[in-house]
UniProtKB/TrEMBL annotation:
Subunit structure as annotated in this protein's UniProt entry: Heterodimer of SbcC and SbcD.
Domain Nuclease SbcCD subunit D C-terminal: residue ranges: 267-355
Protein name from the UniProt record: Nuclease SbcCD subunit D
Species whose genome carries this gene: Actinacidiphila alni
Keyword line: DNA recombination, DNA replication, Endonuclease, Exonuclease, Hydrolase, Nuclease
Length: 386
């Protein structure tokens, strides 16, 4: 059976205030064309269909259109909710849509109930795991801790138990939205840290034939059976060097996996350029970036006069401008931002306590901070999902 694995559409998202609606429409057109031309048997979408819990009407219309087109082709789709989606909103009408072959998996309680597909070699059980916020789903799965590894591990135990009751030779696929150890992140993914532990080991998915992952925006192969499709479009300049693709996956009768990447349309190339203003305006090597979306970092010791206007004359699609003067940090805001880059909320709070008090927080104080951050995250997810 042939699957098309994709994720992280983020319908409704913009790129530095530039609308991506047309680019997202072009991607969905490409997806439908790929399904038809490559004779795809089923589509797998591993979360973050929308960019926010209450998406704009234009994004909902795009989603509605692609669902109708897949249903018209008679190709089933299994889709899960990600940490950007409102699971409850996305799941409205799921039972009715399931009759048309569009299977939305947004309820953690149903994660061990697969969509059953079949080819001449037998059944394929497709399990859709929505994003599992540990503080909200620990009780559902009777997990011993409120962290991603414990909750996802308990969910996978349920899946393996269900699979064990099915006929011998039943192949299994799992969709999951998580940060798996060994994968590379970028700036455009929302932090899903909980309890100071965000990554889960790839071994947590042992026992199934293919794992279609979502959440990270770079296409990645963790093992032959565990892969991220990545986002179909770039959503931050940190994705400058990403090759945006989907996975075309052939699942053999004995569970063997063969996968190849299918490129997605690129609306405009990304470029990060750095240097003094005069150099950026004159360097002939930068000619290739004149039609790109550009992020420029100026290293002049003093801020030039109206640099954005000057750069825009050469790079009309420049979207971001930063200042990092060589020879020192004369911009305290920029320096502060660099110090915070890559640090978790927990680490920032503990650093603040150390700075103010002169000593690091005690273990019980760190635990109190961790509980507070978990409560805020849970409340945010609960509010967005309402």
């Amino acid at each position: 059976m042939r699957f098309l694995h994709t994720s992280d559409w983020h319908l409704g998202r913009s790129f530095h205030r530039v609308s991506l609606l047309d680019a997202q429409r072009a991607f969905l057109d490409h997806l439908v064309d790929t399904v038809r031309d490559q004779r795809v048997d089923a589509v797998l979408v591993a979360g973050d269909i929308y960019d926010r819990a209450v998406p704009p009407l234009s994004a909902v219309e795009l989603f509605d259109d692609v669902l109708h087109r897949l249903a018209d082709l008679g190709v089933p789709a299994v889709m899960t909710s990600g940490n950007h989606d409102s699971a409850r909103r996305l799941g409205v009408g799921a039972r009715v849509m399931g009759r048309a072959g569009i299977h939305l998996r947004t309820d953690p309680a149903d994660s061990h109930r697969p969509v059953l597909l079949a080819d001449p070699h037998g059944d394929i059980a497709v399990y859709g795991l929505p994003y599992l916020e540990p503080a909200l789903t620990r009780e559902e799965f009777a997990a011993d801790r409120a962290d991603h590894t414990a909750v996802l591990g308990a969910a996978m135990d349920r899946i393996r138990a269900d699979l064990a009751e099915r006929p011998d030779g039943t192949r299994a696929i799992v969709l999951a939205h998580a940060f798996v150890t060994g994968a590379a992140a970028c700036d455009s993914e929302r932090d899903i840290t909980a309890g100071g532990v965000e990554a889960v080991p790839a071994e947590i998915f042992d026992g199934v034939d293919y794992v279609a992952l979502g959440h990270l925006h770079g296409c990645q192969t963790l093992t032959d059976r565990v892969r991220y499709s990545g986002s179909p479009l770039a959503y931050s300049f940190s994705e400058e060097h990403h090759r945006k693709t989907m996975w075309l996956v052939d699942l053999g009768p004995d569970g063997t996996v063969a996968a190849e990447r299918v490129d997605t349309p690129v609306p405009r190339a990304l470029a990060r350029i750095r240097g003094g203003l005069d150099d950026l305006l004159a360097d002939p090597a930068l000619e290739r970036h004149e039609d790109s979306w550009v992020e420029a970092t100026l290293t002049d010791p003093f801020r030039p006069h109206e640099p954005m206007a000057a750069l825009a004359r050469r790079f009309p699609h420049i979207l971001s401008l930063a200042f990092e003067p060589e020879g020192g940090d004369d911009d305290p805001l920029a320096s502060y931002a660099r110090r915070l880059r890559g640090r978790t909320d927990q680490q920032i709070a503990e650093d603040f306590i150390t700075h103010v008090r002169g000593s690091a927080p005690a273990p019980h104080e760190s635990a109190t901070l961790r509980d507070a951050f978990d409560a805020v995250r849970a409340d945010t997810v609960r509010t967005e999902g309402a």
